[in-house]
Amino acid sequence: DAGVIQSPRHEVTEMGQEVTLRCKPISGHDSLFWYRQTMMRGLELLIYFNNNVPIDDSGMPEDRFSAKMPNASFSTLKIQPSEPRDSAVYFCASSLIGDPRKGIQYFGAGTRLSVL
Amino acid sequence: GQQLNQSPQSMFIQEGEDVSMNCTSSSIFNTWLWYKQDPGEGPVLLIALYKAGELTSNGRLTAQFGITRKDSFLNISASIPSDVGIYFCAGQREYGNKLVFGAGTILRVKS
Asked: Angle at the Cα of A91 (from A30 to B58), degrees rounded to 5?
């Protein structure tokens, strides 16, 4: 299995630029989660989708952040405009709603974002 | 909101020693998960717990789901250098499929 695939692995950009992070969930999974990890705040859930529909976006910091899931095999997290405080590692995770082993999420390797 | 209190924050132990870490919550969870994160990687599942009182092992790792459903612990026996990393607990409530994560325990092993 390929696992959850995120791209890019590293992104360095300048303040004010648009940033797009990409995620391909595990094939067959129907839930997708976006997290942000920082030293200060740990792992924070930003948004999650069930069957490509956003269910809970209460963790999205502000309007500069948006996420889409146009189909079951692809999701994007966009930051526009980016700010230095957005620097963090962003993880995507996926899971199967009907999995008898409830709750287990499989994480990608993350995108390390640095906004200068 | 929901919070998990994970302790200790960090540990620096001698190779061969046993390690214990735990998570507590003011809320009941129906599922407890323990993940490990290696540097530069995403968290990887170690153990999943689904019933109050459940004790589950995975090699040198043992985890328990607390009777009150508000806590869980993870033990690592005879630590080795590759145990180094960040260990996270995570809980899931009955409805929905969100996980709440603890702040993590950083484990360092002296060989």
From this structure: 80
The residues on A that touch B, with CB distances below 8 Å, are: 4, 31, 42-43, 45, 48, 50, 55-56, 91, 93, 95, 97, 101-110
Most A CBs within 10 Å: which of B3, B88, B98, B100, as the mutation test of the A interface?
A: B98
> Which residue in the block uniquely carries the two structure tokens 């948006």?
A66
| Per-residue model confidence as pLDDT tens digits over B34-78 | 999 999 999 999 999 999 999 999 999 999 999 999 999 999 999
Question: How far apart are the C-alpha atoms of A90 and B100, rounded to whole Å?
Answer: 16
Q: What confidence tens digit (pLDDT) does each residue in A49-87 have? A: 999 999 999 999 889 999 999 999 999 999 999 999 999
